[in-house]
Amino acid sequence: MAAIGWIFSLIALLGGLTLLQDMPMGGSPIIAIGLFLLALLACPLLWRELPLGVTRGQRIIAALALILSLPLVLLPAA
């Protein structure tokens, strides 16, 4: 489980850094911040023990909420 967390955290971190460097579209800063939050939530090193009372299930739900809310950020403003 820790290996999946490391892989997911690294992918989210590199994706956020890429969006901040390239800025390919208008909503890139918002998506980059979301990816940085996702990288923080997925990092097993920071969350090994239970700091601030956040359990593994709560981190998984928060990561899923960030992933599933991505289409809402990408919708064009009407």
Overview of this protein structure:
The protein has 78 residues and is mainly alpha-helical. It has one domain (1-74). It contains four helices and no strands. The termini are far apart.
Write the layout of secondary structure elements.
Blueprint: H1 2-22, H2 28-42, H3 56-68, H4 70-74
Helix pairs in contact: 1-2, 2-3
Taken together, the total number of domains comes to 1
Number of strand segments: 0
Radius of gyration: 13 Å
Overall geometry = globular
Low-confidence residue ranges: none
Decide which structural class fits the backbone: mainly alpha
Tell me the fraction of residues in β-strands, as a range: under 5%
In whole angstroms, the N-to-C terminal distance is 41 Å
Count of helical regions: 4
Biggest sheet details = none
Give a short synopsis of this structure.
Helix content is 69%, strand content 0%. It has 78 residues and is mainly α.
Main features:
globular, mainly alpha, 78 residues, 4 helices, 0% strand, 69% helix
